[in-house]
Amino acid sequence: MELHQLRYFVAVAEAGSFSNAARRCHVAQPSLSQQIKKLEIDLGQELFERHPSGVVLTEAGHALLPRARRVLSEVQEAAAALRSDIDDGAGPLAVGAIPTMAPYVLPPVLAPFSQRFPRCELTVREDLTDRLIEALLAYELDVAVLSTPIEEELVDVEVLGSERLLLAAPPGYPLPADHDVSLGALEHEPTIVVHEMHCLGQQIRSFCDAARVRQRVVCRSTQLATVQELVALGLGISILPEMAIAQDKDGRCCYHSLSEPQPCRDIAVAWR
Q1: What are the distances in angstroms from CA 190 to CA 177, 178, 182, 204, 239?
Q2: What's the rounded Cα separation, in Å, for the pair 197 and 93?
Q3: DSSP conformational letter for 183
Q4: pTM, full prediction
């Protein structure tokens, strides 16, 4: 039993003939008649008595008619409810983000989103890039905020923009203040690095390797806020993204642009 067969059945019952029902359903009469016959075979009951002047419902047809109307009505209501939920933003939405972006990107975005779509059941997951991709593929996440490159054929990526990576140093650190600093000037300087479990740490390491700069690592941290605090205390220098630097409201560190090629990272969204 299929929905279009029930629609044809109700149309014939209400129109009183196969020809009138076919015009009402915008299908050819032989096609409609064939589907009604298939429905009767599936049910093991004749639904209509055929006469030259038209058709009349059998006892089985009278029994099926209110049930068919109820099924079709519920399907129509379900479709209308779904469209309404989509328009109103109702239902679940699972958002992921990498830790080096989540605290800076998500709060200012999710606050107005929740106000606009109060019926949305929002969940947020902060995790590493590889795990976010796995969650997208497993339908555990709807969308993820991360950085490129993403090498997964089943995932679409849209780059929203990019941000510079700047040199962070404690106040008074002996670095040029009147022009950009080259990565070469950081050779053997005491450095606090973002752990390479994060894609940001891997990106910074790649920039330094490309410039043939050897970092003298004195500390590795998984938290950008910790890196900033240690830089402010004078433990060493670091390379940080602009979004983290913007959170340093008190200016506890000094920040310098790096010379060309300017290190930067993409800010992107990904979905299955």
Answers
A1: 19, 22, 16, 15, 12
A2: 27
A3: G
A4: 0.68
